[in-house]
Design goal:
The chain has about 150 residues and is mainly α. It has two domains: about 60 residues; about 70 residues, no CATH class. It is about 65% helix and about 0% strand. It is built from seven helices and no strands. It is elongated, with a radius of gyration of 24 Å.
């Protein structure tokens, strides 16, 4: 939808930036004739356009709308998995729900740095322990609530 205070190309530029394109890419999409320009010229024009108060305010507004929409759908999605985890009698379904909840809360990104490519997830107190000291399947048994002796 065109914003009443911006020209069609400026609106397109704002939408492309809000969608994740860099300023030069957005400028080329909004102003097709610029595709034949030097990169430095496009960069300069894109930077100037982004510095325009109306354009930057529009980008901010579009990002805010996207954040709100994502937050609402993320919350609904998270609630669905929390219901599955709470109500399901299937151990497989409960584990899958916990995995999805962990992804939604960003635990996997954080733990990926800790576990690396080994796939073994350690608690903060165990980060200093060598990865090879934990038996295979240790953490899977912990997630099921049936701890095993080491």
């Amino acid at each position: 939808m065109k914003h009443p205070h911006l020209s069609t190309p400026r609106e397109r530029f704002a939408q492309e930036v809000a969608a994740g394109k860099n300023q030069s890419e957005a400028y080329r999409l909004a102003y097709p004739k610029s595709r034949n320009w030097k990169d430095s010229s496009v960069h300069s024009k894109a930077s100037t356009l982004m510095a325009d108060v109306k354009v930057s305010a529009r980008v901010t507004a579009l990002l805010s709308q996207t954040e709100k929409a994502c937050a609402m759908s993320r919350d609904a999605w998270l609630n669905k998995w929390m219901d599955v985890e709470r109500d399901s009698k299937s151990l497989h379904d409960r584990r899958e729900a916990l995995r999805e909840i962990g992804k939604a809360l960003g635990y996997y990104k954080c733990l990926e740095r800790v576990a690396g490519t080994t796939g073994i997830i350690m608690l903060p107190a165990q980060i200093d322990a060598p990865v090879g000291e934990l038996p295979p399947g240790f953490w899977e048994s912990q997630a099921l609530g049936t701890p095993r002796a080491l």
